[in-house]
Protein 1
Amino acid sequence: MSKLLRKPKREEVSEGITLVHEVSKQNSDLKYVGFRVIDLVKGAKYVESLVKEECCIVALTGRINVTEGETSFKDLGTRDSVFERKPTDSVYVSNDLTFEVEAVTDARIVLCYSPSENQLPTKLIKAEENSIENRGEYSNKRLVHNILPDSDSTANSLLVVEVFTETGNWSSYPPHKHDQDNLPEESFLEESYYHQMDPPQGFVFQRVYTDDRSLDETMNVENGDVVLVPKGYHPVGVPDGYSSYYLNVMAGPERIWKFHNDKDHEWILDRK
Ligand SMILES: O=C(O)C[C@@H](O)[C@H](O)C(=O)CO
């Protein structure tokens, strides 16, 4: 099994709270990106105290209340399935604060983390504030919901985006990378991919590779899997009959998404 591919687990951490994924400094090679997927049964409460990390709480499916100190946001979340293809609500919580998520309905949340020392205000990122982009042509079409893009100063490090790729299409394509701390040409950003497919028995292929091929892995990714991208190009191909959703978390020393396309495949962009 690839070191970059993580299968979902179901670990009940407290009553009504199930940990589905956990990516941290302790269990991966990533230094800037942390990630949890948690299922909550209606009425369950998840409490976490952040230590030198900021967090973006994404109401992936179902409805939740989020409280940090005196601030409460009620009935967040907009969808029962990510494949409704509508943006959802998220909450940004800064380092060294404690937050609570309460499930109004059965819910799945994604917690995106990155190291942070500079406190910023807790902020609701409403679904309707996500900027929406239709990118690509031919079989390279995808729909993007920007939850925390680099143009938004809500966070210190975190970048969070949702991407929908329809049947037979490719995304993160032509292949690009962002693994050199060499601005303004390229930024260094680690990345995680949380994948879902519709219908759920589907699969996608994701390749993660470097120019010198010292890293070159092509993974069969199934519903609920996570792929870690510590470096390298990371295209995703979706087979006929299936639709793909993924949530990306990116973070690095500078909060700028400045990528570099694989020169061999950049011609894809120049087709008339
Ligand atoms: O295909 C897209 O446009 C999405 C990707 O850019 C994805 O968010 C990513 O690879 C970020 O580096």
Note: The chain has one domain: 5-270.
Protein 2
Amino acid sequence: MADIIDGKAIAEDVVAKVKTQTATLAEHGVTPGLAVVIVGEDPASQVYVASKSRRAKECGFHSVQHSLPAETSEDALVALVEELNADPAIHGILVQLPLPGHIDEARIIQTIDPDKDVDGFHFINVGRLGTGALDSAFVPCTPAGAMLMLERVRGRDLSGLSAVVIGRSNIVGKPMANLLLAANATVTVAHSRTKDLPALAATADILVAAVGRPEMVRGDWVKPGATVIDVGINRIPAPEKGEGKTRLVGDVAFAEAKERAGAITPVPGGVGPMTIAMLMANTLTSAFRTAGLEPPAF
Ligand SMILES: NC(=O)C1=CN([C@@H]2O[C@H](COP(=O)(O)OP(=O)(O)OC[C@H]3O[C@@H](n4cnc5c(N)ncnc54)[C@H](OP(=O)(O)O)[C@@H]3O)[C@@H](O)[C@H]2O)C=CC1
Ligand SMILES: Nc1nc(=O)c2c([nH]1)NC[C@@H]1CN(c3ccc(C(=O)N[C@@H](CCC(=O)O)C(=O)O)cc3)C=[N+]21
């Protein structure tokens, strides 16, 4: 039976460190500032954004939230981002994705000052990560959090281990693959065109699922003893809880996979809370850099 990697507990450790370091920064007269921008009324996005703002306040940050109507024009959103770029009280800018269809996401992301891009989605930060310039990059929060969870089980050096990442998005799959490679794992990236995925997955010492398909990864896809990182967040109907009720599941069939894995992350309480904790860590890092101070390692 697998060890369960407790994302909530590790996230609390990260946040505790952020709080301590925020106090250190205060001695230099600096308060980390995070701006979260949300366009439209998607209920799931509202929940995530609210918990980001709550965490930021808990860390002692200056926290501002801009909630804009779904009809907001692309130019108006660009103007807001430029205003936040110029605001010295703001060290981190997060524009919640996805954006409404009439707004070009790429244009918005490339408008964010790379030095305030705490999501790590700007070309500059993607390039830094891709070339191994990890000291200056902002690393996307979800894969960064997943790596900290992996570290608890496998350490920082993954030499000799094979990793399979299912999913190749710019937000999760690709940066995850780059981080695993930087940690010396031998990495394969799978996606919707991959042939015989179950057999490929079963070769992995480290299996990362970032697909968005509820419980797609079955128990017999898991190599005995493997470390399984489930990034998926899927809300599915739960009639057993009552009519119209839902529950969250990952991309991995947890009950089956935990019988074979050596260690596994749960959903909820796994990668999700780590994502928010790493957003705080990245914002703190940005404030340290702006102040000309060496940021702490996480
Ligand atoms: N825990 C957290 O903090 C976060 C969780 N998530 C969750 O992670 C999951 C992935 O998110 P994201 O990367 O944004 O999703 P995307 O939809 O952008 O990417 C999904 C990837 O999965 C691949 N895929 C789809 N179907 C299959 C299949 N049948 N077999 C193999 N690969 C497949 C796609 O392949 P192709 O490229 O060929 O289309 C694509 O590369 C979602 O559940 C999302 O909610 C996301 C962000 C943060
Ligand atoms: N610019 C941008 N950056 C993001 O990082 C970003 C984004 N857009 N858009 C959406 C995705 C998704 N995401 C999550 C964050 C926390 C949880 C989380 O805390 N989940 C809890 C459960 C929350 C619940 O109950 O719904 C858990 O897994 O335990 C989940 C998902 C960040 N994303």
Note: The mean pLDDT is 97.
